[in-house]
Write a structure and sequence with these properties.
InterPro entries: DUF421, UPF0702_alpha/beta_dom_sf. By secondary structure, the protein is of the alpha+beta class. About 50% of the residues lie in helices and about 15% in strands.
């Protein structure tokens, strides 16, 4: 009877029943979010937001209310996830029908008052978003677009952009990630080999920085510029 109360709800359920309900709902939410994919995590559309809010509301009520049915909560969670996946499919096929379209708020330096009113964006909202994008003067902005995600994309006028390496006829500088060579005193031999290096080279570089043993070092990384980052 106690297990039946845990799943179907009752006026009173034991404390361990609340723990079971919380654990099952938690795993159901994890499965549902994994099923819905990256879109739900990023909340890229209005229906994604509604799905997240709805699922969390259902889960919260079922966790704290003993009379609420856990079984119906699990059904609702997976039904929400299924509907979200279905709408995501429709959004790919007919994006204009399902999702919101981008709205131009500033075009060629001029503010679109009608679009501002239609999208309920105030001047303070717009100026705040421009500042966050590094555009402190309206005269710098060529375009500002309200994206379906609710964020504002900003494109500055070409004469306000910083000079690039190409414009200065400088060679291209390629970005790369640091290569981890040592972690917690353990040498990553695979990374050393892939870089054409060996343990003797690593020990010599560490000795130059005052480290006699690799085991004394917490982290060593070879940075893109060729320097060695060492932390003890």
């Amino acid at each position: 009877m106690e297990w039946q109360a845990v799943f179907n709800g009752a006026k009173e359920i034991p404390l361990w029943g609340f723990a079971v309900r919380a654990a099952l709902l938690y795993f159901a939410l994890i499965i549902g979010v994994r099923w819905m994919g990256h879109r739900e995590v990023g909340i890229l559309a209005g229906y994604n937001y509604l799905t997240a809010a709805g699922i969390m509301s259902v889960a919260a009520v079922r966790m704290v209310s003993p009379e609420a049915s856990l079984t119906s909560a699990l059904v609702i969670v997976f039904a929400y996830a299924l509907v979200n996946v279905f709408f995501s499919y429709l959004d790919i096929k007919w994006p204009k029908l399902i999702d919101r379209a981008p709205v131009i708020l500033i075009e060629n330096g001029l503010i679109h008052k009608k679009n501002m009113l239609d999208s309920h964006v105030t001047i303070d909202n717009l100026l705040g978003q421009l500042r966050l994008k590094g555009a402190h003067n309206l005269s710098e902005v060529a375009f500002a677009i309200l994206e379906p995600t609710g964020k504002i994309s900003v494109f500055k006028k070409s004469n306000t952009l910083p000079v690039t390496r190409k414009q200065m006829n400088l060679p291209a500088k390629f970005a790369a990630l640091p290569a981890l060579l040592v972690h917690d005193g353990q040498v990553d031999g695979e990374n050393l080999t892939s870089l054409g290096l060996n343990l003797n080279w690593l020990k010599d570089r560490l000795a130059e920085q005052g480290f006699g043993r690799v085991e004394d070092v917490f982290l060593v990384a070879l940075q893109p510029d060729g320097t060695l980052y060492v932390s003890s």
